[in-house]
Q: What sequence folds into this?
């Protein structure tokens, strides 16, 4: 796993969650449209995307059908019974994506690199690249396709597995000309397999800085477990209207070895936040289309029982009390896709109930139960898929828990702490975009915090205000 | 080969891999027709509607269109000779792997689908559109559309059906004729004559027809 440096005062169980959140910001958020899909299908990006990565109704069907629709010449093989044994595109479905960025914080951070000589950090950080990804995105065999991403990120300086979704899909034509798409997804991030952009993995912001300050709290389904789990889900999409999905997730740690054998498993107490058994995931959504409009409403959720393991501060066997997170979320997506104008409005509300037997027992949570709610709402407009912008609102509120959201140690440095033990954070993100070509995007994004880790002013008790974490983010984003 | 499993595989191959269709064209015509039906519903139908009555005006309604015209257009997409923006972005890729037999079967499928009732518009707009459609605009040298496309805009063995088509789609095509992105000499002349308001009135009138 990618390393991340953070306040030593943050409790280990939350350090892992914070790291996962940072990982999400640095890796999972830039989830992508992939030019190899365009090469494979012969169709321009606009067929599947309003503007990447938001999917059109056709894009949703392409994804549900397993990424396998293709128009390329194939290398084929049949056996003596004329069964197809191979159907391989003559050109592999590879793509490369790059992000080059510049991030500027409103107010410098404390420089804690040398405790003997405290100072301030620089304000701005260039990422060149912030991220560089190699994709295999397309058909592997009939009914079997992949969206698989390998990413170099400048914060870790290493290459790692990023969002991956392997799909096996079939279609059945029902009476009355109705369609039933059904299949199986094998993926490493809850909601990465979802068809709408209102769910976390492919939701707004579609790209964000990995050099910014992130709030303490996030729900488990909101990217906290991204690239840390293996999920197997089954889904059915009836007549482009009703979508149902259910499945399970199990921990799939990267860079983790068993202390005794040195092998990749079994996972032991040196691993952090390991799922007990399997975590169920569920999703239901209904889409209604009229004229050039599309409206989806849905719900999704998961139930995670996590053994904190090493997150308790020292290697701890993966037995005994666990922490339980029950996430239930609602979402909606409206799209108007016209010739010149494209409008999208999307939102989600995730409510998490926590039963923290393990953390509370270890003194790392102040309450045995907590709750956390994250809400996001955003609207996007594009003119001719070239000029556009998004305005988004976000809010996280939850139980006050000085164990989970700890205060700064005497003398600081604060910033990623909460003086009052509250996770409450809210603000706006504004973004303007220009796409000279459909696969090249220039973005200018500004994030404004009205509240951060429980406070508007002096939220960390050391004089830092929420708006000091405001972030200006300039991004060049392209894929080919 | 005739097993249910194979037929399912063939249908799925048709649905999920257009490039595999030419191979399946060697099967019996009945299988071709079945595959084309599944292809029409499962792939074309995503945008054009499973019965060719699309709801999104970006995508034309195909139900009841003449088979010869659908075949001609699919061949033009496959041969990359029809160059309006949506043809290039969507249909060049979609049609690139279609065999002649599949094109024929798709054209027949959509030609035999039932058309819709037409979309209502205000009486004043319809009156203006009907006047232009039926009588042209002599002062602008515009002949009546009905002369070629028929009094009910149903087309014939040489001209496409326009009745019930999305107004937005018709406007896009008129624009493409006008700037020669669709290279049809007669329509280039017609579209160059019409003003925007006149185009809109005619398009709305055509959309209102059953």
A:
């Amino acid at each position: 796993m990618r390393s991340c440096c953070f306040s030593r005062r943050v409790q280990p169980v939350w350090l892992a969650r914070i790291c996962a959140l940072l990982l999400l910001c640095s890796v999972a958020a830039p989830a992508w449209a992939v030019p190899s899909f365009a090469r494979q299908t012969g169709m321009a990006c606009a067929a599947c995307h309003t503007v990447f990565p938001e999917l059109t109704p056709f894009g949703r069907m392409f994804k549900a059908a397993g990424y396998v629709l293709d128009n390329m010449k194939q290398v084929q093989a049949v056996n003596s019974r004329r069964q197809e044994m191979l159907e391989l595109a003559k050109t592999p479905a590879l793509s490369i994506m790059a992000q080059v960025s510049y991030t500027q914080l409103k107010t410098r951070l404390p420089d804690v690199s040398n405790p003997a000589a405290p100072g301030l950090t620089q304000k701005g950080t260039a990422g060149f690249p912030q991220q560089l990804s190699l994709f295999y995105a397309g058909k592997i065999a009939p009914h079997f396709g992949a969206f698989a991403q390998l990413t170099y990120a400048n914060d870790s300086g290493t290459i790692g597995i990023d969002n991956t979704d392997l799909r096996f899909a079939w279609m059945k034509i029902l009476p009355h000309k109705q369609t039933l798409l059904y299949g199986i997804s094998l993926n490493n991030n809850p909601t990465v397999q979802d068809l709408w952009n209102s769910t976390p993995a492919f939701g707004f912001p579609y790209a964000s800085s990995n050099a910014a300050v992130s709030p303490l709290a996030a729900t488990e389904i909101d990217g906290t477990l991204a690239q840390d789990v293996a999920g197997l889900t089954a889904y059915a999409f009836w007549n482009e209207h009703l979508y149902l999905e259910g499945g399970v997730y199990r921990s799939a740690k990267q860079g983790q070895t068993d202390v005794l054998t040195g092998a990749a498993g079994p996972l032991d107490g040196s691993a952090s936040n390991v799922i007990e058994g399997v975590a169920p995931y569920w999703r239901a959504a209904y889409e209604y289309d009229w004229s050039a409009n599309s409206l989806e409403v849905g719900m999704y959720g998961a139930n995670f029982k996590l053994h904190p393991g090493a997150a308790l501060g020292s290697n701890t066997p993966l037995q005994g009390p666990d922490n339980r997170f029950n996430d239930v979320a609602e979402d909606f997506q409206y799209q108007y896709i016209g010739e010149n104008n494209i409008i999208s409005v999307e939102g989600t509300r995730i409510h998490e109930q926590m039963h923290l037997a393990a953390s509370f027992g270890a003194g790392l949570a102040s309450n045995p139960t907590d709750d956390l709610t994250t809400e996001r709402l955003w609207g996007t407009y594009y003119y001719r898929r070239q000029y556009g912008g998004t305005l988004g609102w976000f809010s996280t509120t939850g139980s006050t828990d000085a164990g989970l959201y700890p205060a700064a140690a005497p003398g600081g440095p604060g910033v990623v702490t909460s003086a009052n033990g509250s996770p409450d954070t809210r603000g706006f993100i504004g973004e303007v975009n220009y796409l000279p070509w459909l696969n090249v995007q220039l973005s200018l994004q500004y994030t404004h915090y009205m509240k951060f880790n429980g406070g508007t002013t002096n939220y960390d008790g050391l004089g830092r205000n929420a708006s000091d974490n405001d972030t200006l983010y300039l991004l060049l984003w392209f894929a080919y | 080969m005739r097993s249910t499993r194979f037929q399912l595989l063939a249908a799925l191959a048709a649905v999920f891999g257009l490039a595999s269709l030419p191979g399946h064209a060697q099967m019996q015509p009945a299988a071709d027709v079945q595959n084309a039906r599944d292809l029409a519903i499962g792939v074309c139908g995503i945008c054009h509607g499973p019965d060719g009555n699309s709801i999104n005006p970006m995508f034309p309604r195909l139900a009841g269109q003449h088979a010869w015209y659908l075949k001609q257009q699919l061949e033009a997409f496959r041969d990359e000779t029809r160059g309006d923006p949506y043809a290039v972005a969507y249909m060049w890729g979609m049609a690139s792997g279609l065999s002649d037999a599949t094109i024929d079967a798709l054209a027949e499928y959509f030609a035999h689908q039932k058309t819709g009732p037409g979309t209502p518009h205000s009486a004043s707009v319809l009156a203006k559109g009907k006047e232009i459609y039926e009588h042209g605009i002599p002062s602008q040298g515009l002949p009546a559309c009905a002369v070629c496309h028929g009094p009910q805009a149903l087309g014939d063995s040489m001209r496409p059906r326009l009745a019930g088509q999305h107004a937005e789609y018709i406007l896009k095509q008129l624009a493409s004729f006008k700037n020669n992105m669709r290279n049809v000499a007669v329509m280039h002349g017609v579209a160059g004559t019409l003003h925007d308001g006149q185009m809109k009135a005619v398009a709305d009138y055509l959309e209102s027809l059953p």
Remarks:
- Confidence is low (pLDDT under 50) at residues 1-28 of chain B.
